[in-house]
């Protein structure tokens, strides 16, 4: 079975069949449909090796997998990875995994991977201030996109991110609408792009009179932080939290004090679903699909000459705790 | 920097350096140490492409990633994947992901992947009765191991599995020791290897007088199943569940009825940790490392001529609910 067979059946040229497979956007919808029907009728399976020879590409992209974490927030990047593998599969790409311990190790791993495998591109996650990875790849003309904006740096590459500030702003507005006025924030130490954005959204929606507490991202320090806030003279009646882990700690603290306190988490993890925690949900599958879309544009030479940036709005999932 | 430089520094032959990198077991510990020190001092990075040319191998293994699920039990295979990527990295391999919708689609994907990429081996998960994937790979001499035994079929390939029955037996014995006598089981419909094994462990530890209920794996059907068991004339005072999702449903049902009922889940997910659910924990990182170890043996030609089977014991994590 070859592309020629499909072309004959669909009554189009071989180039058109190739376009439908590799750059469907350039083919008219009606023609595309006819070619896809022919592909289906004939049971044609795109031969990757043959395609690679034609296009000079491996259709292999690499992404880092994080060490297994406590399981509450660690699931966020797992969900992104599921979405990326799905989107890559639909676009005819495969995903290769690697692990790395810090930026320097990750850059050394790029070097090793690029020497060893015929990789097309990288998807970078967990961007942060002073991130050296993107300039390393850019200097070597290696195509990549990042899930996460280049914090504190200009947009010199394409990226997809979630509007974290919009998420906590929506959470805070939900609490204001329910009549809360003293709304606290339980967040991470300053300096992390994501954490600062989540704090900023709360601050923007509430104004300058809220109290906040900085904690490392665990249930225990969430509980300790919430205890400290709730024991203040004018304690908050509601808490917006930078993660579901912190929110879970806040719920424990409120229960321990016998206090009614509305709590909203962030990430809409399985734990939030299980315990009825109101939480901000990130559109991770969409973020992954957009990353893949930007990469495909880059690899097909269809990308505009300036970087594309995609900021996706999160949504508030209202359950029992607020 | 080449292998020759390392060999000169360590005062050994090039072959010995190559052995330390590719088949360390065949080198004496003392020599191995000296070569490793030389590698470290010289900052030598094994060049994968060069190694591939020497060994004729890509050092690339493929594993399926499941569609994202409800997040409670879906995390089990994610944890296995993290462990596999870690173990593969240590052994000098990389992991490639693919998705598949059913056995036939997975087999078609093997065909495509083997045509397109120079893959060394597959790791198969979610083995089941009448699984056609293993014989397809075996017929084509493609190296593979399975995480999960060949249910209802002879051991014709190497596998690693968790002793599911031992897990529910331990849970049941824990409840018996606490004085419970009427211990119910909330499990999946008969026919799934894993589900049947979990039921069997409970049955073995308790004897023939327990009541059980079959439910699909969700919080809602767990709650419905538990309600039905708890409304019986002589209701159980404790429930062993085939998953944390079912256990969460059981807890909801007991609360709804205002009934005290001990509950034990399976998988020790983040949800179990968050709500204090006693649960059976699978040694997933170890299972992944053992899979990688068996594969490395196969690929290095060090495997015995008969299949190796590894059955790992799970452990009970006791929290508040039992």
TrEMBL record, chains A, B:
MF GO annotations: DNA-binding transcription factor activity; transcription cis-regulatory region binding
Signal sequence range: none
UniProt keyword list: DNA-binding, Transcription, Transcription regulation
Stored Pfam families: LacI, Peripla_BP_3
Keyword Transcription carried by entry: yes
Matches recorded under CDD domains: HTH_LacI, PBP1_AglR_RafR-like
Residue span(s) of domain HTH lacI-type: 1-55
PROSITE patterns named in the record: HTH_LACI_2
SMART domains named in the record: HTH_LACI (SM00354)
DNA-binding as UniProt keyword: yes
Cited PANTHER family: HTH-TYPE TRANSCRIPTIONAL REGULATOR GALS (PTHR30146:SF109), LACI-RELATED TRANSCRIPTIONAL REPRESSOR (PTHR30146)
Protein name, entry field: DNA-binding LacI/PurR family transcriptional regulator
